[in-house]
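Saturday, quiet lab. Running sequence design on the structure tokens for the scaffold JK sent over.
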């Protein structure tokens, strides 16, 4: 395998990836990969790039002077104004709610000079930085022509100072406690009837909608996308109404919004399950909604964000863009909730039905750390995330490498994949990278040399770099050491670029430490987003000892009885689902109470281990009827959504409803105050409501006639009644009232 170890500066950033001092900011291996390949798979060398930063606790050289996202943003307007030539920060971080003034996480857009100044003028300011999607020239094109001379409402959200603590508006003390539910997703049909009030003259229930993906409003700035307030949405609804019916297609055309152009969208279903109100008797969510329809229980106030995805060219399917835009969305929602509360008490429940597979899985990723910090600081914030759908995808390796020996990982890379593939290998905590060497072999050709930490290796057999191995001594993506293996796409639509070979790539890890090492590896998510042209194909691990089925017929969704393989279903929780305070939701099937085979499992690698999800909600109606019904992008239509993404918003809705009910009764519930406690409340609720075995199908304990009456799988292994194993669904299940007929409340 002909390749080279790179030393010195990167081709674009000029950053010395392998020679940086020990006290420098921790860098992102993905940025090193993009740098070494000249951003070939991310749209080409950018002018500006989005990053997410964690700051140090104090300003350098100033004893005990706190360094926060707010003080850093303020410094760019004052003493460090010269830095604005190469780093800019949104006003959402400069003017945060008072609860969040101590936060140390923020996003920024930077030029390549930032990477020179990170170890110079900014030394001691940034603790770690992580790559977001580069701002490519094509992103400046409007996403959709807004239509004839009709004005397009909305501008990018820009914030100013908020009132000082204690300076609440007149009558704030008399205002009812507000409960906001925030949804961040892709394809939010904001004109849908489920998000309007029930009645003849309905109006929107959405307070604010931020479309991050709208390129028509300054895409190259920190204030990007376009925001619609309630009055602007109502104006669009009135403009497009005829005989009491709203032409929803015209609403989106006039606003230039492409997220709802498809008849089905992930975000619309998720938002419907989280906060949609039905004007009729057809129930789409698993929870009882009659009280919301009749007005007995007021629905929560809605805030929503359309994510800035990888762009109209779908350059990336791995989630490199995620942390930057997720943190922007969370901070935006919290600021808008604070504005709307106007000094009165309020609660916020956020649903984030996104995730990816590779990461440290110990809660130390930058976005997990940011979410935990925000929950800690905020007066009443709950963030609900799905457990993930990778339980049976063969994307997690748990390899025990004994002292002085080597271990082998086989990575199966599929043909016709038009997006890059990534493998992350995470070493145990406190293991120095010099004690573990790595060697890569392609499906054909010679192996690479074995090399240890502080190395950047590239394989370029022809015109382009096809494989990059980034082995730094400290990484921004977690608190442990990580080896990143990045491959070029295995198919190309550009004649001047070579594809990487498909097939079995092998990675050899040699343990030179003083003891045995348990090394974990994850293949990064590479699925094409719903509704987009198929480009990515999910790669996986391969091992002949791995058992995929039980008795040759049923999908095996547990590890017991297959100890000889290093491919594990355990430890497959989403990389944003291993934090300390977030609520993590698994999925199960309504008719028989069995966990969904895809629902990801624990444990995490935290010191205080998260054994699995906190609870499970319905994601499948039955074996024959996959998914749960929820809104399509047009009113009057329902579609079925599967996955833990469908389970999470039901739990977010349950949290918001509980807050509304208890505060409406004049209670200041100790179950939610002080934060964080939503996770514990959900665990207890699911445990107390977990259905009794008699309420579920009684045939589960009988033999399976489709496999010649073999012995049933033991309850402790499979996800059977009476209670789901903790590793699969936490303490218990949140039951669905719809036990008889799909979609109809009896």
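Result came back. Writing it out in full:
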């Amino acid at each position: 395998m002909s390749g080279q170890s790179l030393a010195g500066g990167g081709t674009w950033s000029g950053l010395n990836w392998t020679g940086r001092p020990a006290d420098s900011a921790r860098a992102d291996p993905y940025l090193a990969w993009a740098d070494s390949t000249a951003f070939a798979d991310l749209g080409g060398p950018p002018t500006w790039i989005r990053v997410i930063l964690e700051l140090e606790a104090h300003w350098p050289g100033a004893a005990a002077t706190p360094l926060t996202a707010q003080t850093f943003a303020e410094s760019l307007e004052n003493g460090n104004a010269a830095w604005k030539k190469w780093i800019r920060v949104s006003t959402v971080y400069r003017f945060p709610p008072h609860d969040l003034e101590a936060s140390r996480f923020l996003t920024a857009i930077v030029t390549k000079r930032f990477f020179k100044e990170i170890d110079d003028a900014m030394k001691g300011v940034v603790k770690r930085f992580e790559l977001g999607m580069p701002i490519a020239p094509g992103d400046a094109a409007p996403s959709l022509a807004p239509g004839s001379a009709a004005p397009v409402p909305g501008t990018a959200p820009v914030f100013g100072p908020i009132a000082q603590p204690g300076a609440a508006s007149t009558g704030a003390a008399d205002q009812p406690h507000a409960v906001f539910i925030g949804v961040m997703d892709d394809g939010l049909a904001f004109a849908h009837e489920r998000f309007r009030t029930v009645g003849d003259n309905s109006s929107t229930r959405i307070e604010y909608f931020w479309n991050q993906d709208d390129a028509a409003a300054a895409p190259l700035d920190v204030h990007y996308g376009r925001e619609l307030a309630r009055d602007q949405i109502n104006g669009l609804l009135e403009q497009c109404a005829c005989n009491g019916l709203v032409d929803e297609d015209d609403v989106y055309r006039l606003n230039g919004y492409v997220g709802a152009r498809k008849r089905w969208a992930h975000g619309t279903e998720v938002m419907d399950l989280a906060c949609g109100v039905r004007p009729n008797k057809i129930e789409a969510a698993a929870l009882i909604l009659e009280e919301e329809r009749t007005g007995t229980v007021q629905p929560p106030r809605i805030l929503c964000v359309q994510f800035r995805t990888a762009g109209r060219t779908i350059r990336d399917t791995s989630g490199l863009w995620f942390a930057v835009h997720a943190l922007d969305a969370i901070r935006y929602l919290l600021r808008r909730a604070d504005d709307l509360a106007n000094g009165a008490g309020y609660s916020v429940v956020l649903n984030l039905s996104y995730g990816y597979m590779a990461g440290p899985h110990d809660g130390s990723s930058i976005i997990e750390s940011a979410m935990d910090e925000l929950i800690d600081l905020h007066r009443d914030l709950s963030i609900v995330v799905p457990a993930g759908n990778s339980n049976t995808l063969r994307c997690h390796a748990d390899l025990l490498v004994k002292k002085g020996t080597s271990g082998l990982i086989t990575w199966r890379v599929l043909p016709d994949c038009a997006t890059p593939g990534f493998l992350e290998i995470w070493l145990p905590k406190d293991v120095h990278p010099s004690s573990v060497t790595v060697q890569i072999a392609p499906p054909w050709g010679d192996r690479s040399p074995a090399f240890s930490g502080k190395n950047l290796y590239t394989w370029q057999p022809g015109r382009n770099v096809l494989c990059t191995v980034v082995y730094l001594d400290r990484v921004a993506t977690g608190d442990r050491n990580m080896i990143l293996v990045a491959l070029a796409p295995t198919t190309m639509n550009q004649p001047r670029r070579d594809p990487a070979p498909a097939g079995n790539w092998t990675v050899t890890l040699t343990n030179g430490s003083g003891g045995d090492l348990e090394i974990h590896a994850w293949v990064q998510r590479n699925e094409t987003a719903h509704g987009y042209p198929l480009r990515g194909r999910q790669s996986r691990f391969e091992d002949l000892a791995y058992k995929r089925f039980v008795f040759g017929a049923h999908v095996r969704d547990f590890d017991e009885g297959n100890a000889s393989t290093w491919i594990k279903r355990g430890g497959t929780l989403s990389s944003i689902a291993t934090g300390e305070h977030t609520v993590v939701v698994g999925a199960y099937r309504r008719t028989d109470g069995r966990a969904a085979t895809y629902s990801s499992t624990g444990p995490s690698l935290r010191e205080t281990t998260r054994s699995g999800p906190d609870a499970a909600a319905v994601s499948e109606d039955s074996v024959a009827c996959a998914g749960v019904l929820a809104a399509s992008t047009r009113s009057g239509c329902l579609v079925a959504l599967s996955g833990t993404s469908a389970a999470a918003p039901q739990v977010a809705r349950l949290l918001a409803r509980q807050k509304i009910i208890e505060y409406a009764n004049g209670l200041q519930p100790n179950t939610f105050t002080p934060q964080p406690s939503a996770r514990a409340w959900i665990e207890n609720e699911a445990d107390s409501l977990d259905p009794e075995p008699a309420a579920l199908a009684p045939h589960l304990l009988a033999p399976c006639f489709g496999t010649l009456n073999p012995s049933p799988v033991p309850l402790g292994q499979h996800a059977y009644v009476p209670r789901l194993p903790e590793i699969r669904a936490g303490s218990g299940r949140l039951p669905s009232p719809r036990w008889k007929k799909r979609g109809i409340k009896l």
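Notes for JK: The chain is about 15% helix and 20% strand. The chain has a mean pLDDT of 84. Ask whether to fix the surface positions before the next round.
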